[in-house]
């Protein structure tokens, strides 16, 4: 998964802000699992880390990395995702028209 997607999904479905407040006791959630085919045993097996439903726990260290570089809120994660998306795919935000950006020379 691309890093910008990690930022967005954790901000949307994770518990980053709770983890920042208590990293020793809160297990970092990567994302929720929304699968209509999950039976009750699977729901119970994947409901962990204080979550209300089935989740995947983040073991990759991304929470620690984001904390190290100064991110503290879900807003920080969303802003990071959006800024990175604009850098990688400007045509999504500006369109494919050549007149989308006007440059003046002095």
Order of helices and strands: HHEHEHHH
How far do the termini sit from each other?
Answer: 43 Å
Rough shape? globular
Helix content: 40-55%
Helical/strand content category: mainly alpha
GO biological process, one term: photosynthesis
Pfam families: PsaA_PsaB
InterPro entries: PSI_PsaA/B, PSI_PsaA/B_sf
Question: Can you put this structure into words, describing what you see?
Answer:
With 106 residues, the protein is mainly α. The protein has one domain. It contains six helices and two strands, in the order H-H-E-H-E-H-H-H. The protein has helices at 3-13, 16-21, 40-46, 62-68, 74-88, 90-94; strands at residues 29-32, 55-57. Helix 1 runs antiparallel to helix 5 (74-88). The radius of gyration is 18 Å and the shape is globular. One of its GO terms (biological process) is photosynthesis. Pfam families: PsaA_PsaB. One of its GO terms (cellular component) is chloroplast thylakoid membrane. InterPro entries: PSI_PsaA/B, PSI_PsaA/B_sf.
Topology, element by element:
Elements: H1 3-13, H2 16-21, E1 29-32, H3 40-46, E2 55-57, H4 62-68, H5 74-88, H6 90-94
Antiparallel strand pairs: 1-2
Summed up:
With 106 residues, this protein is mostly helical. Helix content is 48%, strand content 7%.
Jot down its keywords.
PSI_PsaA/B_sf; PSI_PsaA/B; globular; 2 strands; 106 residues
């Amino acid at each position: 998964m691309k890093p910008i997607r990690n930022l967005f999904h954790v901000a949307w479905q994770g518990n980053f802000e709770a983890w920042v407040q208590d990293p020793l006791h809160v297990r970092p959630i990567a994302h929720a699992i929304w699968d209509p085919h999950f039976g009750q045993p699977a729901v119970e097996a994947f409901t962990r880390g204080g979550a209300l439903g089935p989740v995947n726990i983040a073991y990759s260290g991304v929470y620690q990395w984001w904390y190290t570089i100064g991110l503290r809120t879900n807003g920080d994660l969303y802003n990071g995702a959006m800024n990175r998306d604009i850098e990688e795919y400007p045509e999504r935000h500006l369109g494919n028209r050549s007149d989308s950006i006007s440059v003046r020379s002095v």
